[in-house]
Amino acid sequence: MSEQNSRFESLTVVVPVLNEVGEIGAWLRHVSRMLPGATVVIADGGSTDGTAEAVTSILENPRKRTIDSAVESLTVVLAKAPRGRGSQLRQGARMALEEGAPTHLLFLHVDTGLTEDSVAVLRAALGDPGFRWGWFDLHMDGPSSSERIIARGISWRGRLTGRPTGDQGLLITRQQYEAVGGYEPIPLFEDLDIVARLKKAERGTPLGAHIVTSGRRYRRYGHWTTVFRLWGMRVRYWLGASPEALYRRYGEV
Predict the structure, then answer these.
(1) Considering just the CA atoms, what is the radius of gyration of the chain in Å?
(2) pLDDT tens sequence across 124-142
(3) How buried is residue 200: exposed, middle or buried, by Cβ count under 10 Å (0-12/13-18/19+)?
(4) What is the Cα–Cα distance from 32 to 74, expressed in whole angstroms?
(5) Residue of 185, 187, 178, 164 whose CA lies nearest to 243
(6) What pTM was estimated for this model as a whole?
(7) Cβ proximity of 52 and 18 under 8 Å
(8) pLDDT (tens digit per residue) in 77-128
(9) What SS3 state is found at 210?
(10) Alpha-carbon torsion 225, 19, 165, 200, what sign?
C-alpha cells in the first residue's frame, strides 16, 4: 500500500469535549498514531479546566506541543460551541465542512479509542463507493464482567435494530450527513435522533470491528444503575418527552 493510500486525508474526526484536559492529550496522541493525515475538530462546550487553552497552544505553537505528545500527523481545529453534545457535534461538523473537504466524518467521544481492526475496516469503508454510514462494535476498558456484558449488549442491539449509539462511533459520508440535516442542537439523545433519520434514509452498515470506550460513566454511578437509568430515559424519550425536559430532570448522562 502506498504512503498516500495509507493516510486519512479524506477523513475528519469530530469529538465533543467538556473539561477533558486530562484526556485530550493522550487521545490526540492515539488518533495521530492510528489515523495519520486526518483532520480532528475538537468541539469544546465551554470547558473551565484549560482544555480549550491546551488545544489552542498546539494551534499557535505546534513545535512546542504543550499537550502531552506530538501530533504532527494531524490537522487539529478547535470549534467553540454551546454546551451540549448535540450543539457541539453540530458546530464541529459545520466547521469541518466549511473549512475542509472531507468525504467522510467520524464522530467519536474523547474517552473512546480505535483498534487496529477498526482502523482496517474504517479504511475499507472510506474506499467503498457504496458505503453511506455505519458504526463499530463496542468494548469497554474495565476488567469487570458487568462492563463486558453491557458492551456486548450495546453491540448486539445496534446490529439487531440498526440503531447504534454515539458510544459506538458513527462514520457518515459527507453527502449522507448533509442529506439528513446533521445533528440537532439538543442536549440529550442527539445520537438516537440522527440515527433515526439516517436509518430512514438508508440502512447503515455494521463495520464489524470494535472500538474501546471508557466505562467511567458506569463506574461512577454504578453499572446497572446507569443502565436502568438510561433505559428509563430512553422510554420517556420514545413516549414523547423532549430532550430538553429530560435534561432538566436528569442532567447529562
Answers:
(1) 17
(2) 999 999 999 999 999 999 8
(3) exposed
(4) 6
(5) 187
(6) 0.92
(7) no
(8) 999 999 999 999 999 999 999 988 899 999 999 999 999 999 999 999 999 9
(9) strand
(10) positive
Query: Nearest CA to 212 among 134, 142, 159?
Result: 142
Separation CA 117–CA 29 (nearest Å): 18
Grid-cell match 479524506, residue found: 10
Domains and CATH numbers, the chain: 3-221 (3.90.550.10)
185 Cβ contact list (under 8 Å, min separation 6): 82, 84, 86, 87, 90
What phi-psi label fits residue 11: left (phi over 0), alpha (psi between -120 and 50 degrees) or beta?
beta
Contacts of 220 by beta carbon, 8 Å cutoff, 6+ apart = none
Asked whether the CA dihedral 89, 95, 100, 101 is positive or negative, the reply is positive
